[in-house]
Known about the structure:
The protein has a single domain (35-438), classed as Alpha-Beta Complex (2-enoyl-CoA Hydratase, Chain A, domain 1). By secondary structure, it is an alpha/beta fold. Mean pLDDT is 83; it is low at 1-77 and 439-443. The chain is globular. 46% of the residues lie in helices and 10% in strands. The protein has helices spanning 3-20, 25-33, 45-54, 104-118, 141-149, 153-171, 188-191, 222-225, 233-240, 246-252, 264-273, 279-288, 304-311, 316-327, 334-344, 347-360, 365-381, 387-397, 415-421; strands at 65-66, 80-84, 88-93, 125-130, 134-136, 177-181, 184-186, 198-202, 206-208, 244-245, 257-259. β3 (88-93), α4 (104-118) and β4 (125-130) form a beta-alpha-beta unit. The protein has 19 helices and eleven strands. α5 crosses α18. The strands form two sheets. A seven-stranded mixed beta sheet has the order 1-2-3-4-6-8-11, sandwiched between helices.
Amino acid sequence: MDYFGCLFLFLLYYCLNQIHQHYTNAEMQSLSTTTRRRFLHRSSLNLINQIIRRSSSTLTINTPLSDHPPISDPDSNSAVLAEHNACSRTVLLNRPSSLNALNTSMGKRLQKLYKNWEENPDIGFVVMKGRGRAFCAGGDIVYVHDMIRKGNIEGCKEFFWTLYKFMYFVGTYLKPHVAILNGITMGGGAGVSIPGTFRVATDKTTFATPETLIGFHPDAGASFHLSHLPGYLGEYLALTGDMVNGVEMVACGLATHYSLSANVPAMEDCLKKLITDDPSVVESCLQKYSDLDYPSNASVIRRTETLNKCFSLDTVEEIIDALESEAGKTNDGWCDSILKKLKYASPLSLKVALRSIREGRFQTLDQCLIREYRMSLQGVVGQISSDLHEGVRARLVDKDFAPKWDPPSLEHVTQDMVDQYFSPLIPLEPDLDLPTKQREAFT
Length: 443
């Protein structure tokens, strides 16, 4: 470590001591004896195009730890910033030009930070947020596409291995976790937030899993959290890539709290001042700045009967037939718009996504992530189909928005293709290795 690095660490240590001196011995004693609670887990195509397209650049990580609010340095490559608060840590996803899309380096850094914080008895809880107009638009798919193009399959494996492992770590975290979803939240963005204790959606939140539109499958734990939504909403979101807003996220359980974005700074200030590791105290702070709102009459949440009638069917073909039948009975155009999305998506991805959600309904988070890791490698390697490469080409590279799917239609997708998508690449290919740690509730 150079001179300036040593000087920085010394100043950091000094500042932390000064902060601790602001609190009474009684407060710190109370913190150290507080019981450690462990909690069991609980659209348009144009906008999706823009969101995925903005996730194209990659940055390396060089994360400063500061006692002051992080300030973005346009000349730095700091993709993750960390802030020390009184009794908590705030992690900021800091790639606004890429809508905070995740890459391998970010996953490694997040895992290291979270592990250190979990082992520190002076840290009560963790907050995650994103800079700019997104929380996190998901995994950096262009970053993956570039590795595929260069034949770097091992790099792709490391990408999924690293991010999925961190998502499981969030799902089994031993301290309260608050994700502030004040903006675009997709794919991997949901994967690093929904498994945690609290998710705060706002009036700026948009959520989607648009993977079938680029020839992939809803991953990052999506087969777990989507399959546990009310009725067959999970199948609907997985197949169509349709968006829901912050109010709808709370209504269906994807988020735990709703707040107007104007109230988020006050909520964050409240969290920074807390001296606790008690989830009920953290929730009281979130509730203080929460707002009450209801889904609009046009919301998919209001279409439960039609949605369940169509998306509860056994096959994609039957779902499409049911939607076409419903479209002939109504004049509002909703079924027609859904049919257009389904007919645009990769036929193989549709069948794989449906099976994945159905299996996820009977699996734990770790089982879903292990299965999704297998599926992701199959999609990347392209032994079954090159739809992922073609989907990214059509939407992000050439931008002709006319993917040539292979197979080209649902009737050409065989059962063997779908079965192989759920299998290891080779018999001895290692599965995703997750720790046996389980989050439990203590009294």
